[in-house]
Amino acid sequence: MGQPEPSDPFLGVVLALETATRTGSVAIVQAGRVIARTSGDGRTTHGERLPGEAVDLLTENGLTVTDVDRFAVAASRHRHDSGIGVDP
């Protein structure tokens, strides 16, 4: 009992956003397993499409933003075209 071991997966829903690459990606992780993911189109900025892609992926999996327990972001130090104000 007590604190979980560090190796224990978080059991809630995590919405993961990756903006370190031009295509970017969104994933939903639950109980330590990726249940859905998508990569974007590098011809448009992350800021133009990533929010919609995140909502669409959640909806396709029967979830909404209110179901998300944690957000994870992987970002680059380079602001090549992200359009998203997330600093590492």
The CATH homologous superfamily corresponds to ATPase, nucleotide binding domain
Task: List the uncertain runs.
Answer: 81-88
Number of beta-strand segments: 4
Reading the helices and strands in chain order gives EEEHE
> What is the CATH class name?
Alpha Beta
**Rough outline:** globular
For the largest beta-sheet, the strand count, sense and barrel status come to: 4 strands, mixed
Per the CATH scheme, the topology name is Nucleotidyltransferase, domain 5
Look at the structure and give the mean pLDDT: 81
CATH architecture: 2-Layer Sandwich
Oligomer: single chain
Distance linking N and C termini: 34 Å
- Spatially, the strands of the biggest sheet line up as 3-2-1-4
Radius of gyration from CA coordinates: 14 Å
Percentage of residues in DSSP E strands:
25-35%
Helix content: 10-25%
**Sheet/helix structural class:** alpha+beta
Number of helical segments with 4 or more residues: 1
**Into how many domains do the coordinates divide?**
1
Would you write up a description of this structure?
It is globular and about 45 Å long. It has a four-stranded mixed β-sheet, with helices on one face. It is built from one helix and four strands. By secondary structure, it is an alpha+beta fold.
